[in-house]
Amino acid sequence: MSTKLYDGLRLTAHAPDLFDLTRMVSQRMHEVFRELAVPIIAKNVARVVDDAEVRERDMGGPLHDYLVYRARRLWLDEQAGLDDRTTFHDPLRFSIVFGQVDDERGARRLAYPFAGRHQYTEALMALEADGRPLFVDYHYQDQADRPEEIQKSEWKRRREDWDLLLDAEDPETDGTFGHLPGWQLPGSIEGVFDAVLLGYRDAAIDLNAHCTVERRMRRALIQAVALDLDLGPADDFNRVLTRNRRIERAVELYLGTAEGETRLRPVPLPDAHELDITIRELPPVYEPDPEAIARIGELYREQALASD
Prior knowledge:
308 residues
């Protein structure tokens, strides 16, 4: 059986007992989760603010006439429709298990995180006590050569430690982590909006820093230009990519001109503490200027001619 323990960690001598360590991990992972949730809030709020169809869609019940509930429903529906083999329906998931190996060399405490985002693992590695790390890398795999910076004896010891911890020969463990104690971030998909709205009560959150006015304008221009050009279907994937890149480039060129810099922008997103407004209280959906769309279309055609 192949072994691929890419994210294996070892606890250092500076790590506290399991109870205190779990408390520290829980606190930090909740902080990271909230940091990751803010861009998701911004993205889905922008989808409601910028899309007339989303505003008018029947989402079932009066609560969904409010911006925050409509944005939350978009997020939940999107996750429910994803392939769980890839996302486990939870891109912000985090859990970690702990174990200990004892032999003639002493005791070694190991940990293995299961993270949907690399920021969780980076935060774990940054945890310290008196300026000293609590976790160090202890990964192992037998599908690739030993990393040059790891000595043969160390690589062998890692393999033996993980084999002992997983104990694949024991029918009760079956070579998995299921028998080990651990901690899991609860309800991360359901809690994304609550994490921001409740977890940041005393902090200012600028959603526009995560979904900027410029980015929203570019997206609206790209969609409007693609529709206006009426390029028709393309049966070749590379042709589709080429078209999209040309449109994006044409938009960038236009926005870099004096004319583009003075064009009307979308209104900023509401403050995170002001999301309890109804859809009818939102400003009109941003619509790109027809003159801008026409000029970007010209820039697109100029690129196409130059490449032919």
